[in-house]
Amino acid sequence: xxxxxxxxxxxxxxxxxxxxxxxxxxxxxxxxxxxxxxxxxxxxxxxxxxxxxxxxxxxxxxxxxxxxxxxxxxxxxxxxxxxxxxxxxxxxxxxxxxxxxxxxxxxxxxxxxxxxxxxxxxxxxxxxxxxxxxxxxxxxxxxxxxxxxxxxxxxxxxxxxxxxxxxxxxxxxxxxxxxxxxxxxxxxxxxxxxxxxxxxxxxxxxxxxxxxxxxxxxxxxxxxxxxxxxxxxxxxxxxxxxxxxxxxxxxxxxxxxxxxxxxxxxxxxxxxxxxxxxxxxxxxxx
Length: 286
Known about the structure:
Helix content is 64%, strand content 0%. It has 286 residues and is mostly helical. It has three domains: 10-97, MazG-like (Helix Hairpins), CATH 1.10.287.1080; 143-207, Helix Hairpins, CATH 1.10.287.1080; 219-286, no CATH class. Helix 11 packs across helix 12. Mean pLDDT is 88; it is low at 261-267, 270-277 and 280-286.
């Protein structure tokens, strides 16, 4: 049966999800639970991030819709169990936004975004009186993001270094301790401390550590794919080349991707989704 309701309203999405979960609905949707949908929600969020990185607005609109679908699906499951409804979800976020923006919806005055962020944390602390400042952070967060979040919260009550130079010195100290580690257990512990200190440096530099590493991974992926494609076009095996020539290919890939060329996956280092081949002059095999 064709679906005739307007396709551009939130109410229609709620109705569709309810129908999919209904007696005559979709077997897959009816089978899902909060737990079974966890990985799907994570994947959809990462697809949103990828669309943002690629500056692909059409894809971003699509992926945001997929995230919204996940939210409505969770709310529908909860409603069927008598736990909460989508109206409860909306009410809670609306109440939270109004309460935490007294400078917009009340009489509070702020001078800049930094003061807004400070007030936001203060209001959260009041709402969770008696709880640890760190307890509301989900421990399932990616480790770098979790590290930066707990450091930021600790700093919000003054538990922080006085200046950036102190953080850099701590980083150097952690590197030295890693070098001095005498066994694998010590090396793992000291490496963790080093990562923690490095995240602290990122926080002081106003860099999102998780985002920075994710984008660095993406650049490596794009450059290595470009190297592989170049070798295929030139009829050589990447694994057979000495390291010096692999380094030459790496530098060539960096240059070509900066100029807007991409590998066969269509991604450039600027995130644009145009498709080019990563080709060039024959490799000097010396």
